[in-house]
Amino acid sequence: MNPNVRFFWDQTWGYPLMVMLSTTLLFFLIIYSFRNDAVPFFDRTVLGWFHGIQKPYLTHFFSSITWMGSLWILLPLYLILTIFVSPHILHFEKVLGITLWGSVITTYFVKYELERKRPYLFGPINELPIDPSFPSAHTAQITAFSLGIWLALQGGEFLHKELLGALLLFLILFVASSRMYLQVHFPSDVLAGILIALFWGAVATWIIKSGALG
Question: What is the pLDDT along the chain (214 residues), one digit of tens a residue?
Fold first, then answer.
């Protein structure tokens, strides 16, 4: 690995700004959609579909894979990667750290600012979490973690980089789906979590490009 690889968005200032603006707009449109505790038709329809496909083997799978979005899993992985990968990849710890922790802080701030109630349209498979529903922290965290890794690796040549990207994408999709399958989040909560992670991935890109962190 080349420790001096360049960050892959070095010459494209417009992309991070475009992502930040578009994700922010979509985020506030989602908030507008469930004002006054209304449950949008989209949320009802998607949760109804997940309720309809419930099977014992799917419940076991989603109940297990959903933990990959928890900080109990991601925090140790973050520390391991920071220690062992950062010396070999320029800006790795900065890109991953900004993307992940920016997403975590934003998610929990919005959760307790809006205090949206958890869905109870069909009844949860397991016990409902006690914190507010919007946005989905598990979804935001696994998306930010995966996106931060993928962004940081784009500056160099690595074997099986495309395969890693595909695996990270599937992990995001499985965790996001698990939150809806388990009936603990509305689809709009999940989408908002993804948007938060995309926003902070763009912020990390912009900060590194600006040279503010060296």
Answer: 444 444 444 455 678 889 999 999 999 999 999 887 778 999 999 999 999 999 999 999 999 999 999 999 999 999 999 999 888 888 889 999 999 999 999 999 999 999 999 998 998 788 889 999 999 999 999 999 999 999 988 766 666 778 899 999 999 999 999 999 999 999 999 999 999 999 999 999 988 877 666 5
Distance CA(125)–CA(51), nearest Å, equals: 9
- Residue 11, phi then psi, degrees to nearest 5: -105, 15
Distance, CA of 14 to CA of 184 (rounded, Å):
36
Q: Classify each residue of 104-126 as buried b or exposed e, where b means 16 or more C-beta atoms within 10 Å of its C-beta.
A: bebbeebbeeeebebbeeeeebe
**Cα–chain center distance at 117:** 20
Query: Alpha-carbon distance 25 to 3, whole Å?
Result: 37
- CATH code linked to domain 14-33+41-210: 1.20.144
CA distance 204 to 208: 6
Q: Looking at 66-186, list the stretches that DSSP marks H as alpha helix, in order from N- to C-terminal side.
A: 71-84, 92-114, 137-153, 161-181
Q: How many CA atoms within 13 Å lie on the side-chain side of 91?
A: 30
| Spatial distance between the Cα atoms of 4 and 208, rounded to a whole number of angstroms | 14
Answering whether pTM is above 0.85, one says yes
146, 168 in Cβ contact below 8 A? Answer: yes
Place of tokens 């965290």: 141
